[in-house]
Automatic annotation (TrEMBL), chain A:
Keyword Nucleotide-binding annotated: yes
Alphabetized UniProt keyword annotations: ATP-binding, Cell membrane, Membrane, Nucleotide-binding, Transport
UniProt-listed InterPro entries: AAA+_ATPase, ABC_transporter-like_ATP-bd, ABC_transporter-like_CS, ABC_transporter_ATP-bind, NO3_transporter_ATP-bd-like, P-loop_NTPase
GO molecular function list: ATP binding; ATP hydrolysis activity; nitrate transmembrane transporter activity
Limits of the ABC transporter domain: 6-240
Recorded GO CC terms: plasma membrane
Gene expressing this chain: nrtC_2
Descriptive protein name: Nitrate ABC transporter ATP-binding protein
Topology within the bilayer: Peripheral membrane protein
From TrEMBL, chain B:
GO biological process: alkanesulfonate transmembrane transport; monoatomic ion transport
Protein's gene: nrtB_2
Its biological purpose: Probably part of an ABC transporter complex. Probably responsible for the translocation of the substrate across the membrane.
The protein's name: Nitrate ABC transporter, permease protein
CDD domains: TM_PBP2
Length: 265, 304
């Protein structure tokens, strides 16, 4: 069997509390090629974050396996760096120190001290945060925090970059700006990215494929949509692009016609 | 970044040229200090200082005045503040005299008490943080130890004194033990709470980075729990200082506690009042010291 770069194979996940078993994910299978940008979209509570956490190794699948380059994923590691929704920066460290913590750990043996410093600075410059490198998370805006979160994840040189609703908590202008920046970085470094989102435009703009999930409990992959748009993509030009509009309509139909959000689900 | 800069330059082209305008401003203050007596910043700080200092000073003055009026009659059982100062002037003026035995200045008495507190409190801090980390980090340690701690911590400090006197057969280690046993509970409990409350986010970060146990302890656990730990340490230092006065009254020797008891036995009421003022002042300073260390160590995440 020809293995993909990242393979999610028949993953089930259920949480058991006492005698209650709550099945969150059912039979999820997905193959991701190197350099692909995949978005996972679905209504809240459909288990998208659980799926991301399984790939990250932070949560164990009840059944099924995740392979990365042929090796089974069973614990968290820097090869699957996560950008958390709420940035998860350590508040007692400066922006620089937050990134350096990752760099110093991941490259403790392979890079010298000076090289690690240069590497840390390069990541911070990549997200345009050099001017605020000595500030603490409490002293910078939400968008800046998320940029440092992205720099920290990129600094680990992950095989797969996992983004858990990275722009969800940001205002629209900042979000737009960061999406462009992520697109640019991805074009530059050709990362493999798995992104959770509930924003249709974001999914269409950034992804090569959009994985649409049905509502929980027992959420499955409903459809996978290829986004046939050339890169580099320009936000403004896409607004009137036929393929863009079609893809957007497809996702919207899936989410709001066929799998409408059930109240109190 | 470049987009926002370009957008704003349309509206206010002058302000985006920051470096040049600030260069002029930087040059000016150097020429000015002689002409201006108080820079605006210094003045603002002076006003702030006055706002913080004047109200408590007024309160103290009012209390002293009230006290003076209440106690200035010849038949009053307690001395008025003016009497206290005149009675104890020798003690105030010579805090570090030493006539041998217990007849030492108040500076020495406080120093002896502080030495005991320093030792007992340091032990409590070290063991308290270690035990708290254990209880906070391990569910089984919590189940086993927490109920015991909850019972032990309700025992009043002085109730331990007879037992420790029996065990150590000496006043000095007994007093230190009382300080230790008084200060350790809030340290343990707050450390445990702090460690139990480490956000899952930080643990996830540690897991993704594959930090080992030691790295997790000193890079995530200690700094994340530091605000809680320092809350415990601050309560602990306050309790230590409360306990030492009581313990010293019973064990005797040099120390501010026994000084008070001794003064009572020889009816030197003014000496007692002076000692109380000193005890309060030292307690306040100890609390501030721990609070300032907290701010320095936690880099501002703890409250001063």
């Amino acid at each position: 069997m020809a293995q993909s770069f990242l393979t999610i194979q028949q993953v089930d996940k259920s949480f058991t509390r006492g005698s209650m078993t709550n099945e969150v994910l059912k039979d999820i299978s997905l193959d991701v090629e190197q350099g692909e940008f995949i978005s996972i979209i679905g209504h809240s509570g459909c288990g998208k974050s659980t799926l991301l956490n399984i790939v990250a190794g932070l949560t164990r699948a009840t059944k099924g396996v995740v392979f990365l380059e042929g090796a089974v994923v069973d614990e968290p590691g820097p090869d699957r760096a996560v950008v958390f929704q709420n940035h998860s920066l350590l508040p007692w460290l400066t922006a620089y120190e937050n990134v350096a913590l990752a760099v110093d750990k991941v490259f403790a043996r392979t890079k010298s001290k000076a090289e690690r410093h240069d590497w840390t600075m390069r990541q911070i410059e990549l997200v345009n945060m050099a001017h605020a490198k000595d500030r603490r998370p409490s002293e910078i805006s939400g968008g800046m925090k998320q940029r440092i979160g992205i720099a920290r994840a990129l600094a680990m040189q992950p095989k797969v970059l996992l983004l858990d609703e990275p722009f969800g908590a940001l205002d629209a202008l900042t979000r737009t700006h960061l999406q462009d920046q992520v697109m640019q970085i991805q074009a530059e470094l050709n990362n493999t990215v798995l992104m959770i989102t509930h924003d249709v435009d974001e999914a269409v703009l950034l992804s090569d494929r959009i994985v649409m999930m049905t509502n929980g409990p027992s959420a499955r992959i409903g459809e996978i949509l290829e986004v046939p748009l050339e890169r580099p993509r320009k936000r403004l030009e896409l607004v009137s692009d036929r393929n863009y509009i079609a893809a957007r309509a497809e996702v919207l139909k899936f989410l709001y016609e066929r799998h409408r959000f059930v109240e109190a689900a | 970044m470049t987009q926002t800069a370009a957008a704003s330059s349309n509206v206010t082209p002058l302000k985006t040229q920051g470096p040049q305008t600030t260069a002029h401003v930087v040059a000016l203050p150097k020429a000015q200090p002689k002409s201006a007596l108080l820079s605006p910043r210094l003045k603002a700080r002076g006003v702030e200082l006055a706002q913080n200092l004047i109200p408590p000073l007024l309160t103290i003055a009012a209390l002293l005045l009230l006290w003076e009026m209440l106690c200035s009659s010849p038949g009053s059982s307690l001395p008025a503040p003016s009497t206290v100062v005149s009675d104890t002037w020798e003690l105030i003026a010579n805090p570090f005299y030493d006539n041998g035995g217990n007849d030492k200045g108040l500076g020495w008495q406080l120093y002896a008490s502080l030495k005991r507190v320093a030792l007992g409190y340091t032990l409590a801090a070290v063991f308290g943080i270690a035990l708290g980390a254990l209880v906070g980090g391990s569910t089984w340690a919590m189940r086993g130890l927490d109920p015991v701690f909850q019972v032990l911590r309700t025992i009043p400090p002085l109730a331990w004194l007879p037992l420790s006197l029996a065990a150590f057969r000496d006043g000095e280690p007994s007093a230190i033990f009382v300080i230790f046993i008084t200060a350790i509970w809030p340290v343990i409990i707050n450390t445990a709470v702090g460690i139990r409350n480490i956000p899952q986010d930080y643990k996830n970060v540690a897991q993704v980075l594959r930090l080992n146990a030691w790295e997790y302890f000193h890079k995530i656990m200690l700094p994340a729990a530091a605000p809680y730990i320092f809350t415990g340490l601050r309560i602990g230092i306050g309790l230590s200082w409360l306990a030492i006065v009581a313990a010293e009254m019973l064990i005797g020797g040099v120390g501010i506690g026994f000084f008070i008891w001794d003064a009572w036995n020889s009816s030197r009421i003014s000496d007692i009042i002076l000692a109380l003022v000193y005890v309060g002042a030292v307690g306040f300073v100890l609390d501030r010291i721990v609070a300032l260390i907290a701010v320095a160590v936690t880099r501002g995440t703890a409250n001063a």
